[in-house]
Amino acid sequence: MSKTKADSYERPMRLRATSHLRDLCAETEFNRAQLIQPLFVVEGLKGEEPVPGLRGVMRQSLPHLLKQVEQDLAAGVTQFILFPVPAEKHDEEFDHRFTQSVIRELRKAFGTSFCLWMDTCLCSATTHGHCAVLNDEKIALKKTLKALAESARAFAEAGADGISPSDMMDGRTAYIRAALDRHGFKLTPVMSYSTKFASNFYGPFREAADSAPQFGDRRHYQLDPRNRTAAIAASVRCADEGADLLMVKPGMTSLDLIQPIIAATSKQVGAYQVSGEYGGLSLLAENGLVNFDAALPETWHVFKRAGAQFIITYGARYAQALGVR
Fold this sequence. Notes:
Number of domains: 1
Number of strands: 12
Largest sheet: 10 strands, mixed
Structural class: alpha/beta
Shape: globular
CATH architecture: Alpha-Beta Barrel
Radius of gyration: 18 Å
CATH superfamily: Aldolase class I
Distance between the termini: 48 Å
Oligomer: single chain
Strand content: 15-25%
């Protein structure tokens, strides 16, 4: 039998495989299941330390991460995206044992009571902080794609529910999808950072993930904020390469793109309320200039009004207390 497009990557059932995924993708209501809470776990860290500017967000050791997830589950969070920060940096051969151990410990402690997405990038693992394997400070694309695909396979093997590539390398979604399928993870969905701009709003995150570039910037692989056509085309390409869910980042500065991407791809599109956006609310609240408890859900409703199916937000753990069902 000849191989069809459906055999290679068109598997809508991936997003119906668990109750967590079905709730994430429910279109006729807005609820906590559509809010995704980022987590930062740091190898070798003793205890935990706050991330500057981000209310309630910590860099954590594994024991503290487990306590945090227990608290978040009790607060109604069901979706997480994990950012692992390894102790040792590499530039080509990457060691996934720490991240795999974290995923397995989360599964051992909490089973399938939540959905775990894995941010899949190289920036926290490299000495130079870029999202790629480099050769003389230039991207070695094939080596990068292989490294990303191997990361995705390792995370799925350890028990991750979904893979979320954030690197913006050409062709990475297709490489990851093929690797997952090849290793028996055909029902593991890919949530792609499909339209990600080279933005000034990522500062607190880079502190949390230890991922600031050591030279240059990321403008030669992330999108130019001035360009609408390329932004939409990037998401179309990710959809064509097999992404199950798409995402715009930063969220607030990409609101105008959500509906055009949905129209162009027939895929559900989410928004990442990035660290600079969330941090702005945190700092305004600290100075008595905004009511944090009122302003945070206001921003979520704006994302939903613009058409976002899901929202990655550092404040997901506050949603239940703020009255989000």
